[in-house]
Amino acid sequence: MSVPNTATPPVDPALMREVAQHIVAALNLDLPAEDIDPDAPLYGEGLGLDSIDILEIALVLSKHYGLQLRSDDANNHVIFRSLRNLAAYVGEKRTR
Amino acid sequence: MNQAIRAALTARVAGIGVLGPGLADWVQARAILRGEQTYVAQPCVLPVPQILPPAERRRATAVIKLTLATGLEAVAAAGLKAAELATVFTSSGGDGRNCHEICAALASSDRLISPTRFHNSVHNAASGYWGIATGAMAPSAVLCAFDASFAAGLLEAMVQVAVTSAPVLLLAYDTDYPEPLHRVRPIPDSFGVALALSPTAGDLARLAVDPAAAFTAEPATRMDDAALEALRLAIPAARALPLLRALALGAPGGLVLDHLPGQQLALELSPC
């Protein structure tokens, strides 16, 4: 597992903004993408997403960036901890 | 045949909810059906269901918005508690646009389906969201009988009223299909109707079905207004319109609702 297990992994701000836009569009969120705090928890507290939302995000990012986000990945709690972690994972694993 | 089966199936109408193209609610629909207001066909406007928690609200499809709007209108008019009310949901095919999106995903190269779309695709989705919104734990039946769905739902709801001696909320609803499905199932827009039926309360009308003559080969009662007749034929749930007109006018007498060919549903309306 190469995603750093820290609160602030290095990530391209433009990609993070793009991932935030995918999340807002896929989940029909009633807030602008730039209002998502990069370090707030995506699940439960914070953005208030639930398990169906996380599956939806995984699907949309998999399709768009040509990467694998599997529901049985042991590191999901790290990958999906925050927008920053998710964007860092996408930046590392994307094939398109 | 024993006495219980020979007795007419009856229920009182305690509350009505309507939402469809050019029909914003029962108050407007009643004025149009009484001829006090001209019917103008306009795209159906579905309200955002504020009663749902935020996550479910974000995922609510047309059928969810339609059933919450009509169901809550009927329940409020009847003075009943949604949380305690058994429900009968009936639809010819569920959410057309959700079905379209899943078909499009299956026809794409990766065939991965949105989990939200999948969860909204089950035929009892509207019933599930109703339970979340209202906290209802009472029994809920969900029917589908293609173009006969309204009459089948009404019959089921009336049987439940008779069997349980408790009020039942009937919700009939259909939504449009985008192309290419629209070509084979040309439902043009959303239409929903909800009837709160009760064994004893309710002063709008008394409905009766004679079990010995429930089905008839007679054609369904038509609407005099050409635009309303077109609406009745275009959307399966709008097959309720002749009943809604009789309720709006408070007109006693018999009427025939579209059901199965050669087996239309014969209904008798009387004042309470």
Topology at a glance:
The complex is a heterodimer of chains A (96) and B (272).
Chain A: H1 13-27, H2 51-65, H3 76-79, H4 83-93
Helix pairs in contact in A: 1-2, 1-4
Chain B: H1 3-6, E1 9-19, H2 26-33, H3 54-59, H4 62-78, E2 86-90, H5 96-106, H6 115-120, H7 125-134, E3 140-143, H8 149-164, E4 168-174, H9 181-184, E5 191-198, E6 205-209, E7 215-216, H10 226-234, H11 241-249, E8 253-260, E9 263-270
Parallel strand pairs in B: 2-3, 2-4
Antiparallel strand pairs in B: 1-5, 1-6, 4-5, 6-9, 7-9, 8-9
Helix pairs in contact in B: 2-11, 4-7
List the defining traits of the structure above.
heterodimer, A: 96 residues, mainly alpha, Non-ribosomal Peptide Synthetase Peptidyl Carrier Protein, Chain A, 4 helices, 47% helix, B: 272 residues, alpha+beta, Peroxisomal Thiolase, Chain A, domain 1, 11 helices, globular
Describe, in plain words, how this protein is organized in 3D.
The complex is a heterodimer of chains A (96) and B (272). By secondary structure, chain A is an all-alpha fold. Chain A has helices at residues 13-27, 51-65, 76-79, 83-93. Chain A has one domain: Non-ribosomal Peptide Synthetase Peptidyl Carrier Protein, Chain A. Chain A contains four helices and no strands. In chain A, helix 1 (13-27) crosses helix 2 (51-65) and helix 1 (13-27) crosses helix 4. Chain B has eleven helices and nine strands. Chain B is globular and about 55 Å long. In chain B, helix 2 (26-33) crosses helix 11 (241-249) and helix 4 (62-78) packs across helix 7 (125-134). With 272 residues, chain B is an alpha+beta fold. The A-B interface holds A 27-30, 48-50, 52-53, 55-56, 59, 62-63 and B 54-55, 58-59, 110, 112-116, 119.
